Amino acid sequence: MRIGTAKTSYLADEALFDTAVQRRWMVALLAALVLFPLFAGPYWLYLGCLVAINVASATGLNILTGFTGLVSLGQAAFMGVGAYTVAWLEINLGTPFLLNLIIGGCSASLIGMVVGAPSLRVKGLYLAIATIAASVILHFLFANWTAVTGGASGLTMPPATFFGTPLDQPGKLYWVIMPITVLMVLGAANLFRTRVGRAFIAVRDRDISAEVLGIPLLRTKLTSFALSSFYAGVAGGMWAYFFRVITPESFPLVMSIFFLAAIIVGGMGTILGGILGATFMTMVPEALKLIVGGLSPWLPDAVALLSPVRTIVFGALIVGFLIFEPRGLAEAWRRLRRFFHLWPFKT
Amino acid sequence: MDWLFLTEVSLAGIGAGGLYALTGLAFVLIYKATRVVNLAIGEILMVGAYVFFGFSAGLALPFWLAAPGTLLVSGLLGAGIERTLIRPMLGENPISIFMLTIGLGSILVGLVELVWGANPLRLPEFMPTQPLFLGEAYVSPKVATAFAVASLVVTAFLILFRFWRGGVALRATASDQAAAYSMGIDVPKVFSLSWVIACMTAGAAGMLVGAIGGISPTMGVFGLSVLVVVIVGGLDSVLGALIAGLAIGLLEALAGAFLGGEYKTLTTFSLLVLVLMVRPHGLFGTHEIERL
Amino acid sequence: MRMKYMIDRRAFMGLTAAAGMAAGVLAMAPTARAAEDATTDIVLGGSIPLTGVFAFAGEGIHAGIQDYVQIVNDAGGIEGRMLKYVPEDTAYKVDASVAAFNKITSQYHTNLYYGDSTAFSKTINPELERAGTMIMAGASFASELNDPEKYPLQFIPGPDYTEMIGILLKYIAKEKPGAKVAFVHSDTEFGRDPIAKGTEQASALGLDVVETIVTPPGSVDVSTEVLKLRRARPDYTIFHGYVLAPIPEFITQAKQMGMESKFMGTFWSMDNSMVMKMGEAGDGFMGVMPYNYYYDTSGDAPMLAKIREIRPEYQSTAYMQGFLTTMLMTEAIKRTLQDGKELTGANMKAALNSIRDFDTGGIIGVPISIPGNSIPVGRIYKADMAEKKMIPASDWISLGKTGE
């Protein structure tokens, strides 16, 4: 049951975490994130890092698609821009990794603005397809601008170093990736308490009305593109440090679809949705592998079914959530919470 | 300048363009009637090719049985998709439906892999293999056949749209659903019909594409080129799809011949961007005016 | 008009949750049996592409490794220690492969590893060196991996792609000195791998590279490319970076235009079943193959006989690859243990490199040595559609200093 949430100031009402219970849960979650590497093996740490990277990128896409209503199928390509920038800097200049990540984010955000430039004229589905075109063109650059990107064989980079310690294992990188992701997610959550973020939402709900209200459309849309690609660029940079090999085939169109699917499954236009969706979609293939592995004593050919089943489940999740739960996992979570708010009274 | 080479390349490009036009037509048909951007069109095409493979190689049916069978199954698939997935999404945000078709594409790929496996396969030969020379210029017999079939189907379509009751109903629905409904046209039925016909068309295109290039679960990427075609031509223009189909085919061939294979997609997608910048609704699409 | 569904939203969410929970429970289970058999068994981990686009190879590799492990264990293992094969499916995706690697190495003390792709081999290399406890081979013949300096703990169970092209060119130079050669390759990392080096080699051998054609991945119609090829009038056309499509259509059209070129391929397009799918067009298709085919009975080949005994039906060239990889790994371990050394990556690789004139029991028709990271031998085969077999068209060709 939820009681005692009376507030005495507007500031308290606008707070990101508005109740004591919520703050306590957040502390517990942070503690869990800190304690996780102490208990988890390399496999779980690997997955933890991968989830964090995907959460960062999905949150970025959510800013653009979920909050501003501009569908993009270029997220993976923007990640690629960030990844290539970071790798190039690390190999050729050897600058500190935090700086590299920021530059990677900025370069992705520049490209994002260029791609977003048609968004004033081109809307909806046409825009989505324009972003496909952008990712095809970027992909061509990755594969053919050999002097910078290493061509088809890509770039192989040294690990990030932190005061002389190479961060070459998931266990060490976790301490870089997870804090950055947490910061990025918090940043996104706070964004929608500001004028800029509110403008995004207004544009999503009806862009013409927003313009009438005095929101500069082009600037708002470009800001959204820039921010979203910045997130993608940083996520791509972290991806680069994590895998340390970047080839043109590292960031296919399917990956963009994956992120779009993640925010659909998680819930578009909620910060929680990006987190839940990316986590869920990253874990599903691994979970399927375990299920199939568990079935193999009874079903000898189970392993051969894995890839098709995974493809089907991926599609079915998109379709299923769109039809049955269009607001995604975030909505399911909210319903669960509401149940506990009213718990002893409504059973 | 080698004119013979240019002629041959152009012919090959236009031949391939016929397939783009055919598939683009299927795309436009669905968009016109139901306002759904069907990104699964490439995958439906792939399913068509595999169904044909199943009939002709698996069950060893002769061509004249296997081909209509494929069309039938494709049509049923279209009806099934429309009824179970698209109908419940009626009136939803177009972006959601667009994503739904992406999910659908993934499901279809998985199902095909489940039944036929992921390995590339070859369709049994059903096209003439006699080399064809137009004057001195060589044309691949398969591409020529595919082009001929595609033109036949397209012509049949245009005639049907013009004279058949169902075709007229389709056009009426496309231009104004409410008016069509009040004139006694069963609009939901028209929705189903458009999906059935479009999927049959895609299935036919799948047979042709498969016969030329072999089949594999990844052949759905053909849909990406078709996407360029329909955007350049305009999502709701049959004429646009036909012209853009041929133009894109030609452009691809010329880019491949004079720049190199890696420039093919770059060229077509650059054209796409260019068209979007100049005419955001495609060359022949209708410009929709937004009102508050 | 709302449709009535068999499952409503609640049921859908319930199903999703139940599946998640089941996965969670299963996930906790395997951690319990970690490291219990680290002292006795020698573990061969594998990121195997059992499904996905590379499944045809993955299935063969999987079977090949399984069979050789069985053979070793039936014979009492390696110096009394059993070999344990722990595969995991990757669907040919790099992140899935790395996940599998992390999972297997955290559950078992792994000494041997089989990787599924070039990208994976490159990605995992630093980790391999850091761990220093295993050697690795894989499905990739990428030229880049053939560098003992950069990839000290990996090897390629055959010639790398550049060496394959080299073997083809050597054959061509011998058959028809000064011949005109064309390369047709896919626009992928795999396709581009040997082209630049191959062109250099060709001119070194006095061959004339008249055309290099790139096809975008998944391209359907290749008419334009064939037209380009015809203008170049090559005597030999070498395909690289394909499994099947678009080779058959390419050859069909080229033949219809009256081209006289001979067509050649590299390892992954050379499996018997794949070549036979080309139908008529495949007749006379040639290519380089480092292994004997399953049905080869010409030489003294006890291992091939054994394979035919275990599996009466045709086994792919990928099977041979997996089989030979395991054989070489086993040999490396055996030599390390016999020397009384610890099973570290460096020791095993040194043992592997000590292999000289090794008899593979007929998997490769000549005795082999592994001086570096690859085995630069191969043979040219030619497809005979009437017999539905690949027939040797040359003797074993060996590159490298001691070869010939």
Given as residue ranges, the uncertain stretches of chain C (5+ residues, pLDDT < 50) are 1-5, 28-38
Q: Which sequence of SSEs, written as H and E, runs from N to C of chain B?
A: HHHHEEHHHHHHH
Q: Class of chain B in CATH?
A: Mainly Alpha
CA radius of gyration of chain B is 19 Å
Shape of chain C: globular
Number of strands of chain B: 2
From the spread of the alpha carbons, the general shape of chain B counts as globular
Instruction: Tell me the structural class of chain C.
Output: alpha/beta
Q: Any key phrases for this structure?
A:
A: 347 residues, mainly alpha, two-stranded antiparallel ribbon, B: mainly alpha, ABC transporter involved in vitamin B12 uptake, BtuC, 2 strands, 2% strand
Notes on the protein architecture:
The complex is a heterotrimer of chains A (347), B (292) and C (404). Chain A is mainly α and 347 residues long. Chain A has a domain at 18-251. Chain A contains 15 helices and four strands. The mean pLDDT of chain A is 90. In chain B, strands 1-2 form a two-stranded antiparallel sheet. With 292 residues, chain B is mainly alpha-helical. In chain B, 73% of the residues lie in helices and 2% in strands. Chain B has helices at 3-34, 41-58, 63-86, 94-116, 141-163, 165-175, 177-182, 187-213, 222-233, 238-258, 264-278; strands spanning 132-134, 137-139. Chain B is built from eleven helices and two strands, in the order H-H-H-H-E-E-H-H-H-H-H-H-H. With 404 residues, chain C is of the alpha/beta class. Chain C folds into two domains: 42-158 and 299-373, 3-Layer(aba) Sandwich (Rossmann fold); 161-289 and 379-398, Rossmann fold (3-Layer(aba) Sandwich). In chain C, strands 5, 6, 7, 8, 9, 10, 11 and 12 form an eight-stranded mixed β-sheet that branches. In chain C, strands 2-1-3-4 form a four-stranded parallel β-sheet, sandwiched between helices. Chain C is globular and about 60 Å long. At the A-C interface, helix 3, helix 13 and helix 14 of A face helix 1, helix 3, helix 4 and helix 6 of C.
